[in-house]
Design goal:
The complex is a heterodimer.
Chain A (H helix, E strand, L loop, with lengths): L7 H9 L1 H9 L1 H35 L6 H9 L19 H15 L1 H19 L6 H14 L5 E4 L12 H4 L7 E5 L2 E12 L6 E7 L5 H4 E7 L5 E6 L10 E12 L3 E2 L5 H36 L12 H36 L2 H5 L5 H4 L2 H8 L1 H14 L2 H33 L5 H16 L6 H13 L17
Parallel strand pairs in A: 1-4
Antiparallel strand pairs in A: 2-3, 3-7, 4-5, 5-8, 6-7
Helix pairs in contact in A: 1-2, 2-3, 3-5, 5-6, 5-10, 5-11, 6-10, 10-11, 10-16, 10-17, 11-16, 14-15, 16-17, 16-18
Chain B lengths: L10 H18 L3 H6 L3 H13 L18 H12 L3 H19 L3 H4 L10 E3 L3 E5 L2 E10 L6 E4 L7 E7 L5 E5 L11 E9 L3 E4 L3 H32 L3 E2 L2 E2 L4 H25 L4 H26 L10 H11 L6 H14 L1
Parallel strand pairs in B: 1-4
Antiparallel strand pairs in B: 2-3, 3-7, 4-5, 5-8, 6-7, 9-10
The chains are: A alpha+beta, B alpha+beta.
């Protein structure tokens, strides 16, 4: 077998993440797969993100409605839209799905938090389709994403949870119970009618498919929380406006309006009422970690620009010749390493959980059936039927253990708030040390500073993340229960 | 409404505080977004000319010379009130008055009559590396406020026996002005860099201790503006926290939120204490310390203010993100906090 040459980027990665060196001794293929993904992201940054990040950020301050589709199209070349899509349907996700994604997101966000978010939010949108085991859509929606990506057309997904009067509340079961929810899905013949408003949806204005959370009974959100797959072309769906953000501007935060949108039964992900486990906890358990990577990427970008500034001489003196600057650089590196430890702790735990499913013969055998059959109506009909969902649900319960998913949620919340706080601290400190100097590097760090603030806010505010971490890890009052066996009559 | 302990002040300060607050609410608040986002010079000149009617364009110049005749504390009071609505305009006024300070010290006639439109906003090109030799100015000022709009630039060149301040017309030969391509905060107060090549000064003002006086004013002024920003942030965050429902209650009932708001109140109290004390000292150390403390407090205050607003705080509509950008800039000019700290020790060692 030919030994693959390790690139500059791969060497840096193995040096920065010693755990990958160890892993590589056991699973060279898996780790090299991740290295390849990060190499792609690095090239993307060099070619696409870095040359336009500052200008795009400044442009979108004045024109928030503008969207640069080129950043998405270029992303196709590096398979960024299929990072979270399982290999069995043609995507990149293998035995290191979460870790590969986390490393990729750090790399992308080190160039630009906004462009990184635009690309990462798509994977967040994809995740409910995967985590709910809604395999009927794997061979249609996910397959379409993969196929179109190959042709260079980005098909984008977004995940819509937040509502105008409920942000933090819809991210945590304890609060969902008392949340003021506006969105409702009313049961009708053959499906549901969605009415309401979602806000701050990253990438919502560009998405072709939107995974939407809604209660089928607003007075009992906890028991009736359900995830729907909405197609942009569905009647009654619209995106009335996007926000003017302080940072991460390259990715829109959109308001989504649902006016009597009919969603057929086949587009319920999982089943009615399992949204807490499938739609919130597992997704949050999977996605808060990557927000830690976003924060780490932003912090690393700021650090790199700060270092470049510190090495540039002005009037014959370099800031880095002063010991106080060297010590600050050491502090910054420490924060970045600390973040990496936290988000890797989460993503490796996540992979342990998903790998069990993705590499299992039982799981793989389901994909031995030719794709033509899998994508056919009768097969999808079977998967969407009571029996189909029972089989998927049984598989789910077989592969995913409550305690593993709960552990992942704890690690995710921890990584999220620690990484975000570190990123804010690092970017703040860097600007304080640079002052109002006349330097391009300062403008980059200012952007990182603005970008970093959002990481303390989205995916549940850092305050909520702390409460969640306490509840799961210390207070032991919250745990994930993988959806139980289906009862007859549940859709 | 959240009520801060009112400041016990002599009547003249109280009246000025009220006048400045009224000016800020009437003239600045309605166009705060435009001042931040568009910052065209006509808009700025318009609000400045109105500030001029309160005597704020020649605040520190004695009344006998046609100035406002205010002391440092009075100017700080006005800047705090104006900074509580639009910190960029407050910064413009501060830099303008700091630029006029050498004229007040040097009793220079040509300038101190100048509240005419020709003279504002004056630019204090500082700090930089500028030298005056053989009657010509050479050098670079990498970052300074008011530069792109300024008809009149005041510099504090090193060297030149006895001479401490010189003035240069903004359109003089050899003056190259490069507007800052992207300025994060205090944007009404436009920044840029300045390069001087063989420039003949239009005036030379002689006097002593001008650099110290100008620095002291910048530190105290920025500390006051930062306090204004903190107050604005507290008021907005308090109001929002009283409306927003989350996690089973109005969020002001959550301890995490109450602690953040309490820190804001404590920070503002602290700022006012250090600033008013430093205003009555001529030396630099108290002013520097006040600046360090006040800008740090303000920075934490706005970060928490945005956090309390959640996603809304991050969006332009709620006006919190502007405060965050402004507060950070108060902390970055005229020098970095570590440089100032090192100076504090050095000055203290001299006694």
């Amino acid at each position: 077998m030919l030994r693959r040459e390790i690139s500059e980027c791969g060497r840096r990665l193995l040096a920065d993440f010693p755990v990958l060196r160890t892993l590589r001794e056991h699973d060279r293929k898996g780790v090299d797969g991740m290295i390849k993904i990060v190499e792609g992201c690095e090239e993307y940054n060099r070619r696409v993100a870095l040359p336009r990040a500052l200008e795009l950020d400044q442009h979108m301050e004045r024109e928030p409605d503008y969207f640069d589709w080129e950043i998405m199209r270029e992303g196709c070349k590096y398979h960024i839209f299929s990072l979270a899509i399982p290999e069995v349907v043609g995507g990149q996700a293998s035995s290191y799905m979460v870790t590969g994604l986390a490393l990729a997101v750090e790399e992308l966000c080190s160039a630009c938090g906004g462009i990184g978010l635009a690309l990462a939010a798509h994977s967040l949108g994809v995740s409910p389709v995967i985590a709910s085991g809604a395999m009927a859509h794997w061979d249609t929606v996910l397959h379409e994403i993969v196929e179109e990506e190959r042709k260079g057309n980005p098909v984008v997904m977004a995940y819509a949870i937040t509502e105008p009067s409920a942000g933090t509340d819809v991210e945590e079961p304890e609060f969902l119970e008392v949340a003021r929810i506006g969105m409702e899905a009313k049961r009708v013949k053959g499906g549901y009618i969605l009415n309401g408003r979602k806000c701050f949806i990253s990438g919502g204005s560009e998405a072709k498919y939107i995974t939407v959370c809604a209660a089928t009974d607003r007075s009992r959100p906890l028991e009736t929380w359900t995830t729907f797959l909405v197609d942009r072309d569905m009647e009654g769906y619209s995106c009335p406006r996007v926000e003017s953000k302080m940072g991460q501007r390259a990715c829109h935060a959109a308001e989504l309006l649902f006016e009597d949108v009919f969603v057929p039964d086949s587009h319920v992900l999982g089943y009615e009422g399992d949204g807490i486990a499938n739609g919130i906890l597992i997704i949050m358990a999977a996605s808060r970690g990557p927000v830690g990577s976003i924060a780490t990427g932003i912090a690393r970008g700021a650090y790199e620009h700060f270092l470049a500034w510190a090495r540039t001489a002005r009037n014959g003196k370099r800031p880095v010749d002063e010991s106080r600057i060297c010590m600050a650089l050491a502090d910054m590196r420490a924060m970045i390493q600390e973040n990496r430890g936290l988000y890797l702790g989460h993503s490796l735990a996540g992979d342990a959980l998903f790998r069990r499913a993705f590499t299992h013969p039982l799981f793989k055998s389901a994909f031995l059936i030719p794709r033509a059959i899998r994508a056919s109506r009768p097969y999808a009909g079977f998967l969407n039927s009571y029996y189909g969902k029972t089989v998927v649900n049984a598989l789910f319960r077989y592969f995913i253990k409550d305690e593993d998913a709960t552990d992942m949620l704890a690690k995710a919340s921890l990584a999220k708030f620690s990484c975000a706080d570190n990123a804010m601290e690092l970017t703040s400190q860097a600007l304080e040390l640079m002052g109002t100097c006349d330097s391009e590097e300062r403008r980059w760090v200012e952007k990182s500073y603005r970008d970093a603030k959002l990481t303390q806010i989205y995916e549940g505010t850092n305050q909520l993340n702390r409460i969640a971490f306490y509840n799961v890890e210390i207070g032991k009052t919250l745990s994930i229960q993988v959806p139980g066996p289906l009862k007859k009559g549940v859709r | 409404m959240i009520g801060l302990t009112s400041v016990k002040e002599e009547q003249e300060y109280r009246i000025l505080r009220e006048t400045a607050a009224a000016y800020a609410t009437r003239e600045l608040a309605p166009q705060a977004e435009e001042l931040d986002l568009e910052s065209e010079s006509w808009r700025l000149r318009e609000v400045l000319s109105k500030a001029g009617k309160m005597g704020l364009l020649a605040a520190l110049i004695p009344e006998d010379y046609g100035g406002g005749g205010l002391d440092t504390y009075a100017l700080c009071v006005a800047l705090e009130e104006i900074g509580a609505e639009e910190a960029g305009v407050a910064a413009t006024l501060l830099v303008h008055n700091a630029a006029m300070l050498p004229a007040a010290i040097g009793e220079f006639e040509g300038l101190i009559t100048g509240v005419e439109p020709d003279y504002y906003p004056a630019c204090l090109a500082y700090p930089g590396e500028v030298s005056l030799s053989g009657g010509k100015l050479e050098g670079v000022v990498p970052f300074s406020f008011n530069i792109p709009d300024s008809p009149l630039i005041i510099l504090l060149p090193g060297g030149g026996a006895g001479t401490e301040a010189v003035t240069v017309r903004g359109d003089a030969d050899g003056v190259e002005i490069e507007p800052e391509p992207y300025q994060m905060g205090l944007r009404a107060c436009r920044a840029g860099s300045l390069r001087l090549r063989d420039v003949e000064p239009s005036n030379v003002i002689e006097g002593g201790g001008m650099v110290e006086a100008v620095e002291r004013l910048l530190f105290l002024g920025l500390a006051s503006i930062a306090t204004g920003i903190s107050r604005n942030s507290l008021e907005k965050a308090y109001a929002y926290a009283g409306e927003r429902y989350q996690a089973g209650k109005i969020i002001i009932e959550h301890q995490a939120i109450r602690l953040m708001l309490a820190e804001m109140v404590a920070g503002i109290e602290e700022n006012r204490a250090v600033i008013s004390r430093a205003c009555y000292e001529d030396s630099l150390v108290p002013a520097m310390s006040a600046w360090l403390k006040a800008t740090r407090n303000a920075h934490q205050t706005v970060l928490d203010g945005v956090q309390i607003h959640g996603g809304y705080g991050y969006m332009r509509d709620y006006d919190m993100e502007r405060l965050m950008r402004d507060a950070k800039y108060c902390q970055m000019y005229p020098r970095t906090s570590q440089e100032v700290l090192l100076d504090i020790l050095e000055l203290s060692e001299k006694g």
